Amino acid sequence: QLHSDQDKGDGSLKYILSGDGAGDLFIINENTGDIQATKRLDREEKPVYILRAQAINRRTGRPVEPESEFIIKIHDINDNEPMFTKDVYNASIPEMSDVGTFVVQVTATDADDPTYGNSAKVVYSILQGQPYFSVESETGIIKTALLNMDRENREQYQVVIQAKDMGGQMGGLSGTTTVNITLTDVNDNPPRFPQSTYQFRAPESTPPDSPIGRIKANDADVDENAEIEYSITEGDGYDMFGITTDKDTQEGIITVKKALDFENKNLYILKVEATNTHVDPRFLYLGPFKDSATIRIQVEDVDEPPVFSRPAYIIEVKEDVPINSVIGTVTAQDPDAAKNPVKYSVDRHTDMDRVFNINSGNGSIFTSKTLDRETLLWHNITVIAAEINNPKQSSRVPVFIKVLDVNDNAPEFAMFYETFVCENAKADQLIQTLSAVDKDDSYNGHQFSFSIAPEAVSSSNFTLQDNRDNTAGIFTRKTRYNRHETSTYLLPVVISDNDDPIQSSTETVTIRVCACDHRGKMLSCNAEALIHPTGLSTGALIAILLCIIILLVTVVLFAALRRQRKKEPLIISKEDIRDNIVSYNDEGGGEEDTQAFDIGTLRNPEAIDDNKLRRDIVPETLFIPRRTATARDNTDVRDFINQRLKENDTDPAAPPYDSLATYAYEGNGSVAESLSSLESVTTDGDQDYDYLSDWGPRFKKLADMYGSMDSDKDS
114 is in which domain, residue-wise? Predict the structure, then answer.
């Protein structure tokens, strides 16, 4: 209550209040000075209010005393419960953790005044989650309280923590929060096979690297702690089979490493081991983190194709071997227990010329044609062996046949020799060196001998000297030669080899007599082969002739095209009034297109003529125009057409393009009335064609033409 010393109690003074919450939260009785609160005060919202009060003269409004300031402090009471910073906490710890392992810390705050009593003193306790976890009362730290908690037994825990003020005493307010605790996995479980023995079957035809079965060891752990590596530790099939790990399913995939053979071995026993790849040393005391199992693999018999005794055969044969001679033998057997008989054949795709054949019963290969090493050195054929009872079971083997050389070719000149001798040549002068080649093969190198044919030795004007190095030289035998007496000499030369049997051939050297200068350079010669006249070859003449023919054909085609262009169709301009109906046929092909629609209804049945003359070509002959009678006013179109038709039928000079189709009759009862411009001749003045624009897109062309004509007249 406020009271002024100047207050006489007569009501002459008035008390007023200002400041925090004045008039709203705090009100004052202006007569007595009593201050009252209008609603409940909350310290947590505002702990201190500063107010100013003053007494004024009610009549004059002037203060009778200076303004007074006073402070209102709100005393705290425990009206706020503790609040956790999170509604739900999530935490995780590894399984098998020791007692007292830190899990998570929870925090609660109290809005009450911590300096006034115990209203803000919070104490933590656990309401749910025992005996697995505990909480420190003052810090809110949650710890494990039970030893060896196993994730495989229970993975999720829900703990409820309470925070209570007033130091936990009775009457204090409290709040709770939930903590979800997850146990994370550690590798504390070894892999275990669900059974000790596994049985698998594999056909002997299973190709290498093919899977034949899967096994799996179970591991209660997850993720990398459950990763398993499989291996074969022992067994009689250690080198025949392998095992790999499927990373997605953690299964062991058993595969074949080598080809199986039922006849050789039909049962394999393996020992397989499954081991964890990530072992935690802390849990080695629980035992070895691996397990083993036995695998029995039964090989099944299948019908296999014959097997050759070798993967490939190489046969050598001389090229002079007689036809039907056996050059080698291939052998194949059925590997199955039945030992089915085998027949042999040659794959004709590898022996298109049928040079070789084979005995289907014993596999003997023999020749069916003569061989020539110089033509083909190697013959690569394929032999097929198939079971007689089941021809689908077959196999192939390559046979490489090498043809050995036999001295069956005589040596010959390395090139065609044609030389000359000067008329003024001296005796024993070298004019040509000869060399020879032999198609046959020689292991020690070829040795050729050269000599003049015996029948020409005595009469020859030249001598031949064998150089003993597979070459020979031709020398002159006399001093001078006369080309007018003898212009050409033919020197027969015998070439022999030293192989067995000896082969020889006779080659001819052409020697021409020519005039030479003092240095031996040829000046002129009777031999046409040594003089090459300048001129065009036959091929060049043929090419020139073809060019001329092509040029003539081009000129003829060009002239024909020019002639065709002179016959232009009449329908070439949209401004041609005579053919304006053809130009504006938006719906079809016009009068000329009689196939598009039936225009019979537009014509007078009596005027139909099957033999119509063409209207699309300018007439070649121009006739003198014929004056026709002027149509009567208001003459019906049908009568007009019949009149013109009769005149054209009787007049031989009528142009062929002025036909009935140009002025076809459109029929009776047209809603649009007549579109013909024939009647416009009888009309005085200009006509108004604006109504054409109202008839739609089909008459747009006519509307544009006649509308533009009107606009041109106006302009």
Answer: 83-184
